[in-house]
Amino acid sequence: MDEVKGRLRKVQGRHGDTWDPFQLNPIGSEKESKRICFQLAQYLVAVIVGLAVLTSAVIAKGSLLVLSTLSSPYSMRDPKERQFYMLMLVFCLVCPNFLVFLKSLWKCAFKSFVQPNMKTMASICAIECLVSLGTSILVLIVMPQFDVLTNLFISGGVCIVSAILQIVYRLQRDKWRILFPICSLILTVAGYCLLATDYYVRVTSHVDRQEGDCYYYIGIGIFSSLLISLCWWENPLQATHRMQETLSELEGFRDFVFVISSILRIIVIGGVYLLYHVFFEKSIVWSEFNLTNADWELLQIGLVLFFLQAFCSAACHWFGVVACKIHAVRMSFALPVCSTGPVVLLLGIILFLTEVDRLDGAQHGSITEFCESLAGLSHKNTTPVVLLELTRSICRTSLNSYYLQWPFSMLALEGVCMWSGFVTCTYYVWKIKVQRIERTSQLFVRRLYESAFIDLSLLLNTKMKLPGAKNQENHDDIQNCVIYLCATMWHETYDEMLKILTSMFRLDRYRGDPKEEHNDCFDFECHIYVDDAYMTEKGTEKRLVNSYVTDLIHVVIEVYRVFTNKEPDDVSIIEAPYGGRLMCVMPEGNMLYIHLKDKGLIRNKKRWSQIMYMYYLLGWKGYIVKNPQKIQHQINPRRESMISLSGEIYLLPQYDNDQKRKFISDDNTYILALDGDTDFQPKAVILLVDRLRMYDNVGAACGRIHPTGMGPMVWYQKFEYAVGHWLQKTAEHVFGSVLCSPGCFSLFRGSAIMDDHVLKRYTTTATRASEYVQYDQGEDRWLCTLLLQQGWRVEYNAASDAYTNSPQEFKEFYNQRRRWGPSTLANTLDLLSSGSETVKRNISISRLYIFYQMFTVGSSILGPASVTLMVAGAFQFVLKIAGTLSIIIACIPPVFYIIICFVTKSNTQITIAAIMSVLYAFLMTASFFSIIGDMVVQGTFLTPTGVFLVSMTIMYAVTALLHPEECGMIIYGLMYFICIPSGYLLLTIYSLVNMNNVSWGTRESSKGEGEVKKNHNLLCDKNCRLCCWDVKLQVTQETENLMLQQITGQMSAQATPVPITSQDSTTQQADAKTEPQAKVNTNEEDTVEEEKKPQTDKRKGNVAKDSDYTSISSDDSNKTKTSSQSVYDKDDAGDEDDDDSRFPDHDGTDEARVSDWVLPVKEEFLKKLTYANMKRNLEQQIRYSLRNRDDDDVCEELVSMLKDTLNAELCDVGPEDVLSETDLEELQCTLETQARHILKTSHMEKKLEKTVTRAIQKTLTAPQVQKLEESEHDFWNKLIERYLTPISESQEHKDAVNRELKSLRNKAVFLYFILNVLWVVATFFLQAIGNDVISIKIPKYFPNGTESGEILKVEPLSLMFLLSFAVLLLVQFLAMLYHRVYTLIHVVSYRSTEKDYKPKRPEEDEDYSVIENHSANGLVITSEDL
Which tens digits make up the pLDDT trace of 1114-1134? Predict the structure, then answer.
């Protein structure tokens, strides 16, 4: 209710200034805020991941300790059991190497293979062999000789080499931090000394008959720890400037190195195992590996421990990566991993104290008596083996000494030293800074993890990141990027335009507000390209903007009011070779450009608009940034309104995008392709930017597209889009690359677009039939095909949501898919035909992925036949007729519709398709319930049809549940099911038969062309018809004014020119060639009277009809004119340029001449200067200018006093009247004087005068008409001449293309027809032969698992197709699960860095720099050094 009251207060405030205070409130225009539920979910995920890391690490480490204890020669197990447990220990070491081998082999075989440098590879493999040798010796030889506590502590010494390298290379940000690696080295050495001392005490005290050979094992253990610590040599070195070339070279063939090194590591592990246990110990008896039923407990314990260790170590590594990616490094990664050792020890003590009573027969007196009694428990079946052996291992420590038990404290102190040693060695992990969705290769140095030391492996493998490292300059800090939002419009409605403008203004608020903090470093511009923006006015033949552009201007003004409660600032109208351009500064300072395309001057339609902005933004802007010296007149973005009376020039940050582009590479220049009706949030853009920013090979990324609208067709599309994104797009993303990034919401990398054979190829004009289908019917898919063929990857982000209008009518839907269907097939076949070359170039596309796409294409081609057979099955179920007859009946409707499509027009085809779709829907509904009824009658769903239906239902339900925000889409599944014949049979036939029709098919309208513009000043409009005469008589207000002036003698050659309204079409305007005046006052009664009165300086009644607001800068002038200059105002200096611009040139040339469309457009923006709007604008400008100053009282006083001044000065002006130029100058002087007085009284004159003066100037700034800079004008002319000249084809060429299109259509229809007929005929003959002859017999089972005794007979062809389709869906389902996990990681990481709207300190707010005018006071920089 408070929100409603707040809105009402705003309405009441506006109502005091105007009789029309009402405005729109687009959905989503409110300021975004963090939702508590998302914050709680973020913390919950972090806690869960942290617990998963800790749990998996504890289980993995504990399982390894148990296995080493069970395989110890000092255990009470017999030799057969010990050798089996030792084999499980070997498997634990082999498992991570085997997993890395498989992953690396996959990448080498199906992704990319780089020829390795043999010298580098040999060095790496040698180090890996030494590491594997150390691991094998420590785990397989040394650890079985020690007790479980020593084994727990001894692994902490594997950080020695890392600590030494940190000390040698001084890898610390602060000098004092070198104490950490020094302390680590000292503590580790102290731990080894304590270990040796502890065992010396054990030997001398005869603890558990400890022998002197333990010293050899201690030495071997220390040596093996040194070898193991070589594993992470690369981490310290990559953080320095040393060996950068070698490490960079290694990145290219690291996968191949891992393949070889993994094999060598496995060989070394096996060699150590065999060499020691076969040749030295001779403890292996090969025959005892043949386990019998009596060894079930042995097998169970060994396999469980092995799987626990292998699975949990891999899970710990994966969850550790997830913890870092969700920005929970400390809580969910560093803390759990560092706590692994203490937690294992604590759990061991708790288990020992709580479970020791289960050791029946043990004496619970002293510790020595207890340990001696354990020997008799080894042969009792009731004794837990694991607990017994762990207890027995603890009894081998100094606790079991008859003489001295205090040496046990040395063992505890050893554990503290070892643990403290590796924690201090990896101190940098606690301070690491992680980007959103950081790449795993940027988090960890090695892909391989050491399962025997999983906690140490994760910490030591975490990449050190130092500011001086060369290889981090592009990854550790977020790179600045520039995003060009490019929306193409084609006959959008007012509501559709409202969506895209609201989305752009939301992004402007997200990015530009200085009060608000965010971690996303980007700048952006908005560009809207309006196709078919002009019309020819009948009667006058003037070229004016059409109603679509008028609606767009109204939307811009309305959205600006919603977001700022004022009118647009700094509006410019620019003529261009392609039509025109409107430039507007958005509320927070970002730029909005509206490009109006005249299809008589430049090619229209979406693909050519894309080429237009790609060449302009990437080609032209990139060129002038890289070659500023070649541009004679650099575009000066400073507006005339930014020049104050005191001589300051204000440079605003919104004009610095082109300057910032100098420091941004093409790799970090992005284009966001949009449709004119797309609705999105800033989050969606940032999530797409993340994909391109973090993965250099990603050329494009798309989000989740949601169709909007109402009606059955929209319901069908909602589920169709959902299934397509849930399963198909995720499968493409996971297994290879997305094939189509939709043009309604996709982010493209600038360097990818500029790559060879991409943009240049994209400019190809279609001349052949296949090119018309592939190039122009689905331009977004063709662009993605070009990117894929050049080696770029296209990705899909499911969390980036965008909404776009979908066809709501059956005809519009069919026409849209008539374009999409053939284009999709043509581009996919093009990609498959070049599959071998694409696989070589593109590391994301493998041969398996090509096979997957071939299978999906084959399935889509056989779709009509499959649907026909499904309909035949429905006939068989519902009507209970024979299978062969049902197939014949099912084939009749498609054949009938094919004939209809060949002999009738498109509208007739669509009408018949709609009728047949309804009939098919009834049949499918009956079939659906018949299948359910058949399962009820049969008493089981375990039939091929039943299992398929139930499994599909479960799969779609689970998929929907995994998309919580889209779970409701499952409701439309039934609508989708009953429309399958229409979508996959009739629509396929329609699109194929009409392939020769290459028109757009949707949003076709003649609304803009040839439109008769309403004459609001029309006084008389009569049509007189008499016999063969047809006379049209019109009398306008302007005509009447001219007649009155002639009668009263006012018209003379020496008189002041008569003001001409924007609708004036008299010949006097053409003869005089004076600039038309913007019409503002349409009051017919006052017009004549005001025409009679001489011009005065009085403000009363002196509105815009007495002056002109158009300000034009001539080409030969280097100075800018102020916005208050008028063509008709007399200049005191008698400037000749002004005179030339006022009157026609004797040579017939007129530099000040503007196109006819300019004045009506300017007229719309001139409403900013009405009394009601100025009052509101002034208040908002003052508040915005002082938003971050601690002067609220002064701000309120300024607003109040200036509004009172405005009311007093304009008391006789109507709320809808536009002030003249003279009035504006006087009003500006009055307001500035009043503001100086208020500031002087408040002692704020020096601090705030410039800011307040600038706010007043912006309030009184009129829209400007400007000319395009000469060099850019030349660029557009050459671009249009080279690529975008309107296509004019001869009739002969059109006829030839039409014949070729029909020929292509006939070939495609014939191919489709033959393949589908073969499939149907094969099924028909199998039905005709009978199930008894050729069939697969499947026993029938009831749901409880019992066999019914009946046999189900299924044709092999149908079963094969059913199974293949089921396998395809299962593969897509698994890909969806994988993609869901990583989408969750991305969303959580985004929420942790989400923009938080917090006010900055006043001194942080410097939204502009002030430079004194050089001509006035010299050059003085008062803020940051520009």
Answer: 333 333 333 333 333 333 333
Cα–Cα distance between 481 and 668 in angstroms, integer? 5
Sign of CA pseudo-dihedral 491, 493, 498, 500: negative
For residues 983 and 974, give the distance between their C-alpha atoms in angstroms, rounded to a whole number: 14
Task: Give me the amino acid identity at 728.
Answer: Q
3-state secondary structure of 410: helix
* Cβ neighbours of residue 909 closer than 8 Å, sequence gap 6 or more: 897, 900, 901, 990, 993, 994
Helix (H/G/I), strand (E/B), else coil: 996: coil
Nearest to 729 by CA among 712, 744, 742, 716: 742
Residue 22 burial (CB < 10 Å; 0-12/13-18/19+)?
Answer: exposed
pLDDT of residue 350: 86
Dihedral angle of Cα 356, 361, 367, 369, to the nearest 10 degrees: 180
* Interatomic CA distance for residues 107 and 1233, integer angstroms: 73
Contact 1383, 799 (CB under 8 A): yes
Contacts of 1094 (CB under 8 A, 6+ apart): none
Residue 184's nearest CA partner among 200, 169, 201, 165 is 165
Tokens of 501: 């403008």
Which position has the token pair 């199974």?
1363
- Please name which of 241, 225, 247 lies closest in space to residue 161, comparing C-alpha atoms: 225
pLDDT tens profile 1330-1347: 655 566 666 666 666 666
DSSP 8-state secondary structure symbol assigned to residue 63: H
d(CA 173, CA 1263): 54
Q: Is 1294 exposed, middle or buried (0-12, 13-18, 19+ CB in 10 A)?
A: exposed
- CA 1167/CA 179 separation, integer angstroms: 70
Helix axis angle for 863-879 and 847-861, nearest 10°, is 50
Strands 698-708 and 793-805, by their bridges, are parallel
- Surface-to-core class of residue 1139, CB atoms within 10 Å of its CB (0-12 exposed, 13-18 middle, 19+ buried): exposed
Residue that the structure tokens 């059956």 belong to: 810
User: Angle at Cα 521 formed by Cα 517 and Cα 524, nearest 5°?
Assistant: 105
- Which of 1254, 1251, 1263, 1255 is CA-nearest to residue 1221? 1263
pLDDT at 1407: 38
- Amino acid (1-letter code) at residue 406: W
What DSSP character marks residue 479?
A: P
Neighbour count for residue 251 (Cβ, 10 Å): 11
